Batch of 4 targets.
Target 1
Amino acid sequence: MPVQKDEIIECSIESLAFGGRGVAHVDGMAVFVEGGLPGDTVTARVVKAKKRFAEAVLESVVTPSSHRVKPKCPHFGQCGGCAVQDLDYPEQVTQKAAQVENALKRIGGVEGFSMDAPVPSPEVWNYRNKMEFVFEQRDDGLHLGLRSSLPAGEKGLAPVLDIEECHLCARRDMEILRAAREFAQASGLPAFDPSEKSGFWRHLVVRHTSLNEIMVHLITNEETRHYPRAEELGKALVDRFPDLTSFVHSSRARRSLAASGEKVVFRLGTREVEEMVEFDDRQARYHIGPNSFFQTNTKGAGELFGAVREFGGFTGTETVLDLYCGIGAIGIFLADKVQRVIGFEISEEAVGKAWSSAKLNGLENCDFAVGTLDTVANLKALPENDVLVIDPPRAGLHENTARAILELAPPKIIAVSCDPTTLARDVKRLSDKYELKRGRAVDMFPHTHHIETVVLLELK
């Protein structure tokens, strides 16, 4: 008889699924156990039972895994930021690499393929260079922190947890968070409520770079009468933290909960901060604005970009087409090894930063263009190239983009992905013309379920 909802089961956890849940089998059925770790024997309560699988939540650990460790953070289990802080780090990397390889075989249909050895993060703690904190108004007052974790089986928006510690980011980030929380609570202004589209405070984004530059980006609702309070917060933070390089206040009118501003209202200090990524003897510098996307693990980015350089096998004669180039991070890192880099990106702001970053590095062989990659006209205009680099959003390639790549048929494709399942789907889409030659998992996000992957595809 298959497992039933609310049934208590005993099972052995075999592996981790992408997302961080333990995988067990009971009477031949896969059971995903929230809180179960590979090597555990546990009792778990079934919260959802389907025909082919079930979901359960950990009740007790009967026999703990040899890989279980004591979590470092007192918020672990409440905060939604970390998923596997109680699993020793080498095993985290092993499990993530196995998830990538499994996805490529199961979804991508890849056979007879072995991944390179996975690359762990150079830093296991305090590695994040950017934190997105969120404001929330509840009956008991204003909160500022990170979303808490939702109980297994529940959906929706988790409440904000007023964290006091976080071992993923710099200590200075937490000091800035506490100061901003105290100011906002004392201001008497409420946090933004997306259901009512009212309230003022929305997000506080803190970014610091390897060059010791710090940017605080405050995002509020579009209520001009309250703008002076945001300006006061900026001045208070600059006074309290003299090492602050930039404070930016942006407004956002849309209901969506993205931590990005639509219009800059006020600024103290610089318009951007400068970052540097290193790998072996290569150094590249970047201008990063308040809304810029950049890899959140700077030293890990060196490993990731270094893998792209290695997989490319560049000789100095290649033209590289860098799709979804953002601020030009990967293309600029490759530019000293190739003849020409052409970047393509939908965000005009990001392309502006790509141009200024190329200039910062003294590069004259980089071109960047603004445009979307899901329209036929833009895709037909893509230039011929020797190596195509793609680093799409989590959702992967648009179907039109995949078709255009097959028509363009560059000799090599190097794909970077933060989602093994969409990467595997895209490898499958391109498999008529391309063969998967290499793959490497690069862990940029210790203690979370996220993993980056680089793969090399070559024209058959």
Note: The radius of gyration is 23 Å.
Target 2
Amino acid sequence: MKKTAYQPWAAALVTVLLWASAFPMIKLALHDFSPVPLAALRFAVAGITLIVLLGINNPARPAAAGAEIYTPMIFLRLGLAALMGIAGYNVLLNTGQQTINAGAASFIVNTVPVFTVILGASLLKERFTFWAWVGMSISFSGVALIASTQPGGLSFGAGAFWVLGAAICQAAFFVTQKPLVSLLGPLRTTAIVVIAGALWLSPWLPHAIAEARDASWTSLATVAYLGIFPAAAGYATWSYAQAHFGASRAANFLYLVPPVAVAIAWITSAETPNTLTAIGGMLAILGVGVINTRGRG
């Protein structure tokens, strides 16, 4: 099918909608599932979906990505990316969302670019500028304000603490997978990482199946939705958007995720953020904006 001008924009906006919907849907699924089994079942569904998607639309590898590219180091990097970006991120996010609301979680997760810059400076020796410090300070003040409205604040074991850990895992995932995309292509990299993430979580799959036997049809449908749409289709549409816009420009669309997540949570669960959460969320997004526009050396 011939690509038209609106398709990359549609792919980016569909990604925003799907990823934003994940936060309130996770909250709903946690009524009947524990955090780790929920992640295991969700990504078993996502892995199967992506295997089917790759079978239907097998993307061409870049010219450099011959069989010799799959070295032990590449497999190690893929495994680490899956451990942090799929298993670690989702287990921590699910754990955090047991006690904090979907809107607050989406605002905290949106600080991923802050941690990406920190890890890039630490591990990849990327430049850490004055404006990066400014943006980091603004974002962290926003996260602290959001956490102050949630049970336990940012103390160890509190919901906001685990969601902040999820954001760090996601940042580590982005740093780890960055060189893989140019070698293997975005969709192929995403598919391998998601499937590997499902394998990391597979020891908890029997527990998930046991919980599924007692779960409501609403919860089962929610898990299926999370696996097929935000996890599988969302990553696929994001890969398509990144291929057109480039990683930096595409990242600007992610500013829309928290407000859309808040709107969906309000519609599905009558969940409305209080004033402090809203102000903290705006500060968190403002800090990310400063880093993305001025803070990268």
Note: The two ends are 39 Å apart (CA to CA).
Target 3
Amino acid sequence: KFTKNTHFPNGYIPSGTVLGKITATGLYGPYTTGASDGTQTAAGLLFSSVRAVDANGNNIAKVGAARFVHGLVNAAKLPANSGVDATAKTALNQITWL
């Protein structure tokens, strides 16, 4: 679900990216309003940046990462394309938004 040009042009998916859980696989992808595969519901934020390409520059199919689901977050400090919006903030009700 993550694409190189959109989500990780420098090879890393940035921390703070809003994640949605893909219903069919149980894996996480980028939160996308209007989707119908489960990613339309925010399920957390990527806790820290994760490398998404290998040493040869090829996309890695699956990467392991931590998901941030509760705590304090200053939305102004998230990456520009994090995907956070009012709907995501509502769904992530265990996060206190500063």
Note: The helical segments are 4-7, 86-91.
Target 4
Amino acid sequence: KDIKMARPPKYATEELLKDKVVAYFEKCEEKKEMPNKAGLRLFLDIDKSTYSDYKKKFPNPIKRAEETIENAWVQRLGGNAPTGAIFYLKNAFFEDYRDKVEQTIDGSLKIEGVEIVVRK
């Protein structure tokens, strides 16, 4: 008979996860680094799928972390070179930040002020 052994979770409680997330933001502030999802996962020592699991199991600290990360990048939009912030927001928070695409019945396609007309 095969016995499957699951590893115990790194963060058994929401409080443990929350404390580690807070420590990540403190480290970012101390080192003057921009917080981001990849950095958070590295700091927590978890991969993307485990991150998704924690997001379902303990949604409050993960949601709060993502809101804090998003806010830090949105604040950066007011700087001299917002292109990097725009790129990060469109990729890390694609549900909220994406290019608007409109298509009409006549076959034309409009993407952020650029119009492409398909002739038949």
Note: The beta strands are 101-103, 108-111, 114-117.
